[in-house]
Amino acid sequence: MVRLPGRAGTRSTRRPGGRRVQPAPGPARRARERAARSRAAGGWPTRLWAALRGRSVARQVFVLQVVVVLLLVVAAVVALVLQVRRDSTGEARSRSLAVAEAFANAPGTAAALAAPDPTAVLQPRAEATRKAAHVDFVVVTDTAGIRYTHPEPNRIGKKFVGTIEPALHGRTVVEEINGTIGRLVQAVVPLRAPDGRVVGVVASGITTRNAGGLADRQLPVVLGAAAAALALATAGTALVSRRLLRQTHGLGPGEMTRMYDHHDAVLHAVREGVIIVGDEGELLLANDEAHRLLDLPADAEGRRVLDLGLDPETAALLASGRIATDEVRLVGDRLLAVNQRPTDLDGGPSGSVATLRDSTELRALSGRAEVARERLSLLYDAGLGVGTTLDVTRTAEELVRVAVPRFADFVTVDLYDAVLRGEEPDPGAGLRRAAAGGIRARTPLYPVGTRIRFVASSPQADSLRTRRPVLEPRLEAAPGWQAQDEERAARVMRYGIHSLIAVPVRAGAVVLGLVDFWRSEKDEPFDAEELALAEELVARAAVSIDNARRYTREHGMAVTLQRSLLPRSLPEQGALEVAYRYLPAQAGVGGDWFDVLPLSGARVALVVGDVVGHGLHAAATMGRLRTAVHNFSALDLPPDELLGLLDEMVDRIDQDESADGAGAPVIGATCLYAIYDPVSRRCVMARAGHPPPAVIGPDGEVVFAEVPAGPPLGLGGLPFETAELELAEGSRLVLYTDGLVEDRERDIDAGLEELRAALASAGGSPEETCRAVLDSRLPFRPGDDIALLVARTRALDADRVAEWEVPADPAAVADVRAAVSRRLARWGLDEAAFTTELILSELVTNAIRYGSAPIRVRVLRDTALICEVFDSSNTSPHLRYAASTDEGGRGLFLVAQLADRWGTRYTSTGKVIWAEQSLS
Q1: What's the pLDDT tens digit per position in 627-686?
Q2: What angle in degrees, to the nearest 10, is found between the helix axes of 392-403 and 360-385?
Q3: Fewer CB within a 10 Å sphere, N or C end of the chain?
Q4: Taking every annotated instance into account, which residue ranges of this chain make up the domain PPM-type phosphatase (predicted)?
Q5: What distance in Å separates the CA atoms of residue 433 and residue 417, rounded to the nearest whole number?
């Protein structure tokens, strides 16, 4: 087992008895415990111990170094002071002895003792000597110890304090005593007469205070030097501790020990090999797993990696120190994934660390995992790529594109014809190939569009019958499949196709068709897992195919309804030359409509409307509105009144459907209604939330008519306003829905400008105008329906209009009949004269009898012969059946029998009774 350097012992965290060692408390908990113990114990030893047991090793080293330096400095200062004091005392003893012997041996000292007043002689000499020798006293005594001299005169004549007996016997004494002037060091020497006899004693001394003065003067210097030394030592210790703090990351001894133990345990317990290589290519460390994976010798640490007998490529990789990520190396019979990184990042030591992972077993699993991942990816892509449109054939083609070549080499999709039409499938009917594709273009399989009826023995028939997928692993050993078409089957096998999976397209309990997956490139046949994948793939596609089928059915129904509601042909009329276009929206049928409605008096109504939304509801609502406009127009109402009635009807529709709860209200409907009179060439129009019409003059100038914009239908409460335009003959009136000028990518102002440009460059006829407008929008596929109606105006010539003022006198009826007969003869309509005279006689007679003046008669020759009688009365005549005994009441009955159409319309000055006769 490999150990970290300096590590000994086992790594187990259990005690011999099996009990797990209690984990050490955290740093915060330990700090609280230390603080509590410090407060409980108190005193500087405890505080010092607490400091020494600080959190980090750096702090402990710092405190210990500071304490040691402090103790050394204090010891040095004390020793220096003691030495100085000792040296000062020795110097005081030597000086005192020298001064005492010099004074005792000085000439005249011994003779002065025999003088009558020795003090008078010796005192000045002693003081002079004392001052010159820098001692504190020079005392001369007799043999009895009585002083002759003293620095303090009042002490002369008194007993000497000190030991004089040895001096009386001729010996010298140096001693420390407490004298009269304090603690002192003194030397006592004998004073001899010329004959050698001791006649007195000379003592000289220095007080201890003066003897230690040198030490006291040197003490500040010593203490200053000690403080400086302490400061320098502390600063140096702080620098060392700071570096130690960085290197130990602020950890304490216990934490470092635990970290070492944990790292060691993790290093050797991990299931990956770990190798640390130095910058010289030597192996610094290898854990147990690395030893096992690389079969390293026991003494591998410290040796060069290239000398360990490893595979050359592996050894070169580990010795190079370059970055490696999951590089696979074959070492023995193992496949090792090697990851290597340098260790000198962020200031670390030079070298590299590599991890080794045994991927031998994972390599086999990764292959199966990769296959599973690819299959999941295929299903995911099928969910995104199949069913992007609501078209059955397109959905089948998308399934082929997803499956080839990721799952099969060739794929065919066969569906019932009814499914392609959006209807319910007939299980007994044949299938039609809706889509096919493969890795090669030309195949011997049935082409797209072929109607196929599978024989009962084929796997396809079995799959349709059982509603379960069928696997045919070897087609050459499948006689049931070959029985479908032996010649084609032989060509298929020669082509290389050898395996088949047939999966029914199921939507609930309904089978919509069949999907065949064919394999040719791979030698292995389809297996059971691929059969399950094919079933899942087709199941996801079946939902989209069924949705497309249902949409096809609903769309077909809506288109049929819409086509039945839109005009199939334009009525015959002579006032306008009309062309139209209708483009359904990309999303399906909508609620746009248009109409051309012939009115009385050769007038023509143009209407364009739009119901917001798409689908059956919008188409049905459009049909109801179009029918209402037809009915209201038969009343010959002005445009504003007609839109008012239409608005009330939409409001009633909303109320009825909201109360019923079975339908949705009309969320928005707009309409533009215009009436053109070819006699006056005037056009009256009103609009309810609809875009304004465009007018192209005979000179090609394009303007948008300023028609007041009323609210959309169904809002109610606001009246509609009309605008009246006088149009020159040959002008083109362009009506359209908002799908032409507005979509999500542009606003209506930009659309109107584009429309203006298209109209300005269009040809002169309505057909050319429609073509130019739609060509400017190609290849645009509208998101909303587009209805476009272009009408070029015609004027009814004056010679085709005849008018007469009629007096309110019954006798004037004969004059009217004669004038009309002459005009009809001029027009070449002599055969219609008799009928026309009867109709006008009845209408004029009614106007004279029941109406009021002025009375006017107008006859128009257009596609039909139109007779009109104007009067200022608002009383409307009505048709009734007269009894056999009635003398009157049969006039309007005769008119109704003789005319093709008749009716009444109201004007601002009265009413008009009209009747039409066909000229064909």
Answers
A1: 999 999 988 899 999 999 999 888 887 777 665 555 555 567 899 999 999 999 999 999
A2: 160
A3: C
A4: 573-793
A5: 9
Work out the number of other CB atoms within 10 angstroms of the CB of residue 236.
Answer: 12
For the chain, the farthest-separated pair of C-alpha atoms sits apart, in whole angstroms, at: 214
Checking if the pLDDT of 887 tops 50, the result is: no
Rounded to two decimals, the pTM is: 0.53
Residue 112 burial (10 A CB sphere; 0-12, 13-18, 19+):
buried
Across the strands, what pairs with 583? 786
Residue 6 has pLDDT above 80, yes or no: no
For residues 512 and 221, what is the distance between their CA atoms, to the nearest angstrom? 113
What pLDDT sits at residue 363?
60
Instruction: Give residue for tokens 């041996």.
Output: 105
Query: What does R_g of the chain's alpha carbons equal in angstroms?
Result: 65
Where residue 414 falls among pLDDT bands split at 50, 70, 90?
Answer: very high
DSSP letters, 420-437, are HTTS---TTSPEEEEEEE
- Asked if residue 22 has pLDDT above 50, the reply is no
Query: What pLDDT band is residue 908 in, cutting at 50, 70 and 90?
Result: confident
* Nearest in space to 778 (alpha carbons), one of 744, 754, 747: 754
State how far the Cα of 893 lies from the Cα of 161, in Å rounded to an integer. 182
Strand ranges, E, within 485-632? 499-507, 510-519, 576-583, 593-598, 604-611
Rounded to whole angstroms, the Cα distance separating 338 from 356 reads 5
Helix (H) or strand (E) holding 46: helix 44-52
